[in-house]
Amino acid sequence: MAKPTQYRFCVGPWNFSEGGDPYGPTTRPAKTFDWKLAALKELGFEAMMFHDDDAVPEIGTKSAAQVLKEAKELKKRLDGEGIVAEMVAPRLWFAPETIDGGYTSNDKKQRRYAIDRSKQTIDIARELGTDLIVLWLAREGTYLRESKSGARSTELLVEALDAMLKHDKQARLCIEPKPNEPMDHAYIPTIGHALAIAQLTRDPKRVGALIESAHSILAGLDPADEIDFAMSFGKLWSLHLNDQNGLKFDQDKPFGSANLRVAFNQVRALERNGYGRKGEYVAFDVHPFRTTREEHFLKHLDNSKKTFLRLVEKARSFPTKEADALIADRNYQDLDQLVLEHLMGK
Question: What is the CATH number of the domain that holds 176?
């Protein structure tokens, strides 16, 4: 019998948000990268996620040589703190060149910009010691369906993925699907879409997926089912746990905040599939509530980790034999109550 997984935890610099939203300004002062790095260590997180411009600030103003130099300097800082870079992602959705999409833009020059920046992201990741490139295809979609061909856009996405795979034979591309926001509709809205498009690339074995709880919920899907599905293919290479209160904007609530049972089933799916045994990290893509005071800045991260570990205990202590007997008898009413009472601590 395999030993229980010892989970390792990860967070990104953007998860220390200052409380700004589309309707109002920030509510907390900004923190330096050094402060975030120290806080990450204090909370017991072993790794940090990066966008390309997190790793190299003001990346668009620097030469290729300067970008690599600063990436090497960051690697030394991380090594000195005992922190690993889990992944790097190109932040294409901020760039003026990607107003009409990056890889699927109707402008060939802008498509070239997106691919070139993605290749540079791979170079940064190599310097930071990670082969994992996360692709959140934020603006790969349309506000107006007549403005693009979905079939042609699929071809363009494959061309972009192939260019990245060719650029570095070790890099793994990890697609993070989301059905909406900022686009009206996205071309790769679910894990099924991500795994399907992987099969069209030059090296499908190096194209996998990242699941975010909230994104699955926004697609009307259960995150636990998405985890099971991706891991059935051996394709869940990273994970963003958080919570979401229904079909609205991406809330990034603390894990388990809105629906503890949905969170419990995600942990059960991770447990039964052995997530983490190949070195994968559990990342919490969560933000402090806008109303949070500065002195409580880290509670969303600490609480998410506490909830996760408590649910791991609940998953491992679940009365499996009793549940199996109820399932065999098709007594789902009592199975439902068994789960509720287990979570409530009876």
Answer: 3.20.20.150
- Which residues are CB-neighbours of 91 under 8 A, at least 6 positions away? 51, 52, 53, 54
Reply yes or no on whether 54 is catalytic: yes
Q: Which of 51, 215, 240, 300 is catalytic?
A: 51
Is residue 296 annotated as part of the catalytic site, yes or no? no
- Is 204 within a domain? yes
Please tell me the pTM assigned to this model.
0.96
pLDDT along the chain (346 residues), means of 10: 88 95 94 95 96 97 98 97 97 96 97 98 98 97 94 98 98 97 92 98 98 97 98 98 92 97 98 97 97 96 98 98 98 98 91
What total of structural domains would you count in the chain?
1
Question: Which one from 54, 123, 243, 250 is the annotated catalytic residue?
Answer: 54
Residue 328 lies in a domain: no
Residues of the domain holding 236: 9-318
- How far apart CA 176 and CA 95 sit, in angstroms, is 19
Rounded distance, CA 202 to CA 159, Å? 9
Q: Is the residue at 336 inside a domain?
A: no
